[in-house]
User: Fold this.
Amino acid sequence: MRTVAVVALKGGSGKTTIATHLALAAHLRGYDTLVADIDPQLSAQNVLQARTQPGPACIASSGPKLMSAQFAAQGLGKDLLIIDTPAGLLEDVSEAIVLADYVVMVVRPTLIDISGLVRTLLMVRKLGKPSTVVVNQAPVPRESIEPPLVKRALRGLAHMQAPLAPVMVRSRTVYQIALETGRSAEEMSDAAAAKDIADLWAFIAVELWGAEDEADEIAEA
Ligand SMILES: Nc1ncnc2c1ncn2[C@@H]1O[C@H](COP(=O)(O)OP(=O)(O)O)[C@@H](O)[C@H]1O
Ligand SMILES: [Mg+2]
Assistant:
């Protein structure tokens, strides 16, 4: 089993959107997936409970309870545990990072979000955790030209030597609409959003299992 923590100390960057989309992407590809929601607001749990089709399991947890949840998930033979974390609660977020095999940091392409990333980045580096930074809510390029906001954000992240994911998740209303019914953008009719999520999953799956193992898992599913 692999454990992924989705973190950002700032609220509203899209942790729950990315955590639930990764969990749904894994589920749709046959991975037995559990989400541990350690945000007291329980947004991930609410999203996944709204789903009518079979989907990833979700439990409400907390930083201190996370380790036993991880053992239980392992015992149940889960393939993947995704932890959705709260903004600000540094201790709980630290526990998620410590227990994770891989950390996904989520940032909007704004200077406030990017400067808010520094502490998380330092913690992840200190613990030597493999990680990636996903730029979320990036404005859609016009005629293939990246908006200045995005260019500036990418420069800032490069300056910080942040491990940038090769895929950005664009700002699209389909994510909000899909999650109202616990669905992934991949299950909706917005091909561009579906591609962002499929590409992000493909990248993270290789990060977690390596190229060959990942291919085997999909073949078995
Ligand atoms: N890529 C996106 N495009 C459009 N809206 C988004 C996107 N990602 C997140 N949002 C919206 O931004 C708000 C905050 O997202 P959420 O995932 O709840 O963030 P967090 O869990 O970090 O607080 C929600 O209303 C969500 O629907
Ligand atoms: Mg959230």
